[in-house]
Design goal:
5 helices
Length: about 150
């Protein structure tokens, strides 16, 4: 038996842990679909950051590497959300920081930067949906003793 499956009973109904794993895995996959293209094909994304040439490519590739670093926390939580509860909380805080930071940048962007506005809006939607998915998974993965139902 895979470590983590034995702990499914601690969460109450076993389907909750599988929904949690599915939600966290979905966010991880979505994040990787952004990170990998940024690393491999940065020239495709430089326009969205209003940057050109080698500096733009280095910037976009750096974002992809940061995305990969950020997602190093996901595999343990996918394996056993109950055991890695604190790490799961850190993931939620990271996602919220990204969402709030991107929102602040968008709100403070002066007129005339259409491509940056579109890029910021995409990141807000992306991180906002990721935050919601992680929050639902976090709530589903609460130990039985802390649930009110």
């Amino acid at each position: 038996m895979i470590k983590g499956m034995a702990d499914d009973a601690r969460m109450g109904k076993p389907y909750k842990i599988w929904w949690t794993r599915a939600l966290v895995t979905g966010v991880l996959i979505a994040n990787l679909t952004a990170a990998i293209p940024f690393i491999l094909f940065p020239e495709r994304f430089t326009h969205g950051f209003e940057m050109d040439g080698i500096p733009g490519q280095v910037f976009v590739r750096s974002l992809g590497i940061l995305f990969l670093m950020w997602n190093a926390t996901f595999p343990p939580v996918i394996l056993d959300p109950s055991r890695y509860r604190v790490l799961f909380g850190v993931m939620l805080v990271q996602q919220l920081i990204g969402l709030l930071g991107e929102t602040a940048m968008l709100l403070n962007l002066p007129p005339g930067y259409g491509a940056l506005r579109i890029t910021a809006f995409r990141f807000i939607l992306f991180d906002g949906s990721g935050f919601i998915a992680l929050l639902v998974g976090f709530l589903l993965s609460r130990p039985v003793s802390s649930q009110l139902n």
